[in-house]
Write a structure and sequence with these properties.
Blueprint lengths: L8 H7 L7 E7 L7 E9 L2 E9 L8 H13 L17 E3 L2 E7 L11 H18 L12 H11 L5 H18 L2 H4 L3 E4 L8 E4 L2 E5 L6 E4 H12 L10 H14 L4 H27 L12 H13 L10
Antiparallel strand pairs: 1-2, 2-3, 3-5, 4-5, 6-9, 7-8
The chain binds adenosine-5'-triphosphate and L-homoserine (HSE).
Amino acid sequence: MAVFTAVTLDDLTQWMKQFPLGQAVALKGIASGIENSNFFLTTQRGAERAEYVLTVFENLDFDQLPFYLQLMRHLAERGIPVPAPVPNAVGDLVVPLHGKPAAIVSKLEGSSQMDPQPVHCAEVGTMLARMHLAASDFPMQQPNLRGLAWWQATTPLVLPYLTPANACFLHDEVTFQTEFAASPVYAQLPRGPVHADLFRNNVMFVGEKLTGCFDFYFAGVDTWLFDLAVTVNDWCIDLDSGELDEARVNALLASYRAVRPFTDAEDIAWQPMLRAAALRFWLSRLYDFYVPREAEMLTPHDPTHFERILRERIATPAPRLANFE
Ligand SMILES: Nc1ncnc2c1ncn2[C@@H]1O[C@H](COP(=O)(O)OP(=O)(O)OP(=O)(O)O)[C@@H](O)[C@H]1O
Ligand SMILES: N[C@@H](CCO)C(=O)O
């Protein structure tokens, strides 16, 4: 159960007065998710009822959160289907609840598509490209906090838990990525605010129609190609082998490219970037597995899934970005 901080309707009686939403009339903890405490919140103003999501942030502090919430607001205002944060009476999007930062955002329709077909991947590709373009004039700056510097700092913390062969493999990949990040090709990659965690469980569909995406709490400024690689490594693979599925890769890349064409540097950087995206989640899963937080109550995600993907991305040439139909 991913509710680390208990919240009751009584707790909200006073607290809700700062929002223009009326009264809280129902509150239901959301079981999925491993980072924050999430609740479906029903409000009533006069005869009108509305549904929202209340999030109590367990690991992010008041300094980091405005970037995520303001980015969501920026995107929602530009027609990207993301939850719109609700400002309180003085315009704050993040406010304390039980001493922790909390926010109310609009609730998206639909449910996750955990067995995506090319038609779903095409929807994701279109939305991702539109999101990159819409975020490009977002004025706030915050790096991807799970980027290269975090990989370099986290590697020594997990190395002692790995077999000598895996420790060597991880060390070599971080060295490779450090060199890649210093290369002239990397320097030419277009960048901006990116989602950086656009997995199947963070996107909603009604049938084949994408209705929105959420969970912006790993967002940050990074290359657009990194975001695309994170997305492809989850949406377009065979989950058992980690291999890319050509039909889904083509659908996602073609629809992305139709909105935002790729540059030559991106074409060259695609394979190293697929490796970087796999490394990022191998490392975070290793860290969560071996160095659990005190508040952690859930089984962490399986790190070997991304170790397998990383080995597969190194072994098999990636499809050229410029060459697919
Ligand atoms: N705006 C929203 N609209 C509808 N449902 C939402 C919304 N935000 C969250 N949810 C629901 O809450 C669940 C948990 O949210 P989320 O994935 O953000 O959890 P988390 O613990 O913050 O993150 P993580 O995915 O990193 O574990 C989602 O699977 C989804 O069902
Ligand atoms: N998407 C991450 C979890 C954090 O959102 C993972 O699968 O490891």
